[in-house]
Write a structure and sequence with these properties.
This protein is mostly helical. It has helices at about 1-20, 30-45, 50-60, 65-80, 85-90, 100-114.
C-alpha cells in the first residue's frame, strides 16, 4: 500500500508538471490533446478509472510514442486490478525511449505493472 501511495504522489507530480507548462500558439491537434489530458485529470479526480483508461488509450492513439500517456494508462489499469494490462503491454513497444526521462518513465511503468 505504501508503494501505491508513492505512485499516486509521483503521478500527481507529473500531472502538475504537464499542466503548469506555458503554451504558445497551438495547433488544433495540440489543443485536442490538452483537452483530453484535462478530461483525463477530471476522470482521475472522480476516481472514474475506466473513463481515464479510455482517454489514455485515446491519447496513445494520437501519439503512440507518448510515454506519459502510457504512464496514465498503466496507473489507471493498476487501479482497476490490471484490467488494461494487455493494452499497456502492447503499447510498451511503441513508446519513445529517446531521452533519459522516457527511460525513467518506462521503468516506473514496469514497476506499476508488477
Amino acid at each position: 500500500m505504501k508503494i501505491l501511495k508513492s505512485y499516486k504522489l509521483f503521478f500527481c507530480f507529473i500531472i502538475l508538471f504537464i499542466n503548469s507548462c506555458a503554451y504558445a500558439t497551438s495547433s488544433p491537434i495540440e489543443v485536442e490533446y490538452r483537452s483530453k489530458v484535462v478530461t483525463y485529470n477530471l476522470a482521475l479526480a472522480k476516481q472514474d478509472y475506466v473513463s481515464a483508461c479510455s482517454i489514455a488509450e485515446s491519447l496513445l492513439s494520437m501519439d503512440p510514442s507518448d510515454t506519459l500517456s502510457l504512464l496514465r494508462l498503466a496507473y489507471c489499469s493498476k487501479m482497476l486490478n490490471n484490467q488494461y494490462k494487455k493494452s499497456v503491454n502492447s503499447h510498451m513497444h511503441t513508446v519513445s525511449r529517446s531521452t533519459k526521462q522516457d527511460l525513467e518513465i518506462i521503468d516506473f511503468i514496469e514497476a506499476i505493472k508488477n
